[in-house]
């Protein structure tokens, strides 16, 4: 066990990522060993402010081993620990058993909290924090309701670990294979070819040369399988164990489920404070300075008890025209504006009596690609781009409004409904709302996906699609465009059309799809006064 003092040069490096540090000199102890209930040794690094007898604590539990990172990544990773200690908190960052030890996180987190509660430097007030997997492990620990827990501050993940793996009932192929390869195959990056491999339970070998047990586990158990039930902590939101802050991103693959958490907290009736911040970020592009400032204010108020947290329940970055941050003192379900798919590729604000069914053919041998969608990295999301190559595909239908005469603001969840039919046993519906600029280029606003396996598909099945939340302003002169397709591969795995198990299916079936009643697009545009 080594004890070191963080020098001025390292502090300056941390400040570049996390903003101004606090006044305290920081002492690092590495390693710190905590025994789990079964005797397994959990290893961590502890940062303490020097010269303070009793301090509150922050716990971060991570599957990412800093020892395996290059120096510059390690500096960033440990920077948060140093930042918390500089502001007067003890901060323990602890490695989980493995990169996929999901089912152990609640018990191991509880054992670690009990260890913290026994330390002579602990003042009895604890905060749980972290992004992505760290957010999941925070909720797993919170589910044990430690008496010392005073606040939760998470980012880029919802309370349900499983929902993003099976969005809309499909399989998140790109996420499952790329993330598992990075974690279980020494950082292997997956190129396009393994995503096209059939059956999918051989794609991990095609990508990495070996079977990846967690990828196989995801294929073996779909989103509704009771196997995953212990990883769903969303019921905690009905009676939260502590004040909750969550930070999300408009381009994060978990945005829909994080927003559902926010709505559930808002409707819970709990007297405990909660706050949601959502910015223009993809999963791995969270602004660490904004995140640290928000979480520090939250913990100073609710853990240390001497701060002034932001008072609004929602802060979001409005994208599109006149971008910038918007603060909402409270949140209630907004009123809506409805658009309708109409004949001749139009999107109109009143139903079109001349509408007839819209048909297209989906060929899984040439699946509709996922364009301007990001799993972990920033990719090409968030900016203006040319969607012509996508819209010109025969398996994509586009519906466009007239130019807007005045600005249109969205803030809330976007939904769509229609009657969908297919001659396949199983078929997908993918929708994307675009902001069309006057020069014809577009900006993605939201998208949604639904997999339908229903005996009545041939006759038509009523469907509703959640496109997730948006905070966006359409400028005057811009138009709305709705794209309708049956896939976005490899973000969502392609539906082969025969209803066979996802893991082993190999038979491809061309599917003839149709919208048989006018599709309605419901936009959150009318906001109650705060």
UniProtKB/TrEMBL annotation:
Sequence ranges assigned to domain Xaa-Pro dipeptidyl-peptidase C-terminal in this UniProt record: 296-525
GO molecular function: hydrolase activity
Entry protein name: CocE/NonD family hydrolase
Keyword Hydrolase part of the UniProt annotation: yes
Keywords for the protein's UniProt record, in alphabetical order: Hydrolase
Parts forming coiled coils: none
Record carries keyword Membrane: no
Gene3D superfamilies reported in the protein's UniProt record: alpha-amino acid ester hydrolase ( Helical cap domain), alpha/beta hydrolase, Galactose-binding domain-like
SMART domains, A to Z: PepX_C
InterPro entries (alphabetical): AB_hydrolase_fold (IPR029058), CocE/Ser_esterase (IPR005674), Galactose-bd-like_sf (IPR008979), Xaa-Pro-like_dom (IPR000383), Xaa-Pro_dipept_C (IPR013736)
């Amino acid at each position: 066990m080594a004890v070191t003092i963080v020098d001025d040069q390292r502090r300056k490096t941390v400040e570049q990522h996390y903003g101004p540090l606090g006044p305290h000199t920081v002492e690092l102890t590495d390693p710190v060993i905590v025994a789990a209930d079964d005797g397994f040794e959990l290893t961590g690094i502890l940062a303490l402010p020097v010269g303070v007898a009793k301090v509150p604590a922050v716990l971060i539990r991570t599957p990412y081993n800093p020892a395996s990172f290059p120096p510059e990544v390690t500096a960033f990773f440990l920077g948060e620990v140093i930042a918390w200690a500089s502001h007067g908190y003890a901060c323990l960052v602890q490695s989980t058993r493995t990169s996929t030890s999901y089912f152990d996180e609640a018990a191991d987190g509880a054992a670690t909290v009990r260890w913290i509660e026994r330390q002579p430097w602990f003042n009895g007030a604890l905060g749980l924090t972290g992004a992505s997997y760290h957010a999941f492990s925070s909720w797993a620990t919170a589910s044990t309701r430690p008496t010392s827990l005073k606040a939760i501050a998470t980012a880029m993940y919802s309370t349900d670990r499983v929902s993003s793996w099976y969005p809309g009932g499909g399989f998140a192929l790109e996420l499952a294979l790329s993330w598992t390869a990075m974690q279980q195959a020494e950082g292997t990056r997956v190129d396009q070819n393994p995503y096209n491999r059939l059956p999918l339970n051989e794609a991990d070998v095609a990508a990495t040369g070996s079977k990846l047990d967690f990828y196989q586990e995801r294929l073996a158990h779909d989103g509704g399988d009771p196997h995953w039930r212990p990883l769903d902590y969303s019921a905690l939101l009905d009676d939260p164990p502590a004040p909750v802050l969550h930070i999300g991103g408009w381009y994060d693959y978990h945005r829909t489920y994080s927003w559902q958490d926010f709505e559930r907290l808002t409707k819970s009736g709990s007297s405990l404070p909660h706050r949601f911040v959502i910015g223009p970020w993809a999963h791995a592009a969270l602004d660490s300075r904004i995140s640290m400032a928000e979480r520090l204010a939250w913990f100073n108020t609710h853990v240390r008890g001497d701060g002034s947290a932001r008072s609004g329940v929602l802060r979001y970055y409005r994208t599109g025209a006149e971008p910038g941050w918007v603060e909402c003192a409270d949140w209630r379900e907004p009123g809506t504006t409805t658009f309708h798919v109409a004949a001749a590729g139009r999107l109109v604000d009143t139903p079109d009596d001349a509408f007839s069914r819209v048909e297209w053919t989906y060929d899984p041998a040439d699946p509709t690609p996922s364009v301007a969608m990001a799993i972990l990295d920033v990719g090409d999301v968030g900016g203006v781009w040319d969607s012509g190559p996508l819209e010109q595909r025969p398996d994509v239908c586009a519906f466009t409004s007239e130019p807007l005469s005045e600005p249109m603001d969205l803030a809330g969840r976007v939904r769509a409904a229609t009657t969908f039919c297919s001659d396949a046993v199983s078929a997908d519906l993918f929708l994307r709302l675009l902001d069309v600029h006057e020069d014809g280029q577009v900006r993605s606003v939201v998208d949604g996906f639904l997999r339908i396996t229903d005996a009545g598909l041939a006759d038509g099945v009523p469907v509703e699609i959640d496109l997730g939340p948006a905070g966006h302003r359409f400028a005057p002169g811009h138009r709305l465009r709705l794209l309708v397709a049956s896939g976005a591969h490899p973000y969502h795995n392609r539906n082969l059309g025969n209803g066979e198990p996802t893991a082993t299916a190999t038979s491809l079936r061309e599917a003839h799809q149709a919208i048989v009643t006018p599709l309605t697009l419901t936009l959150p545009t009318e906001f109650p006064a705060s």
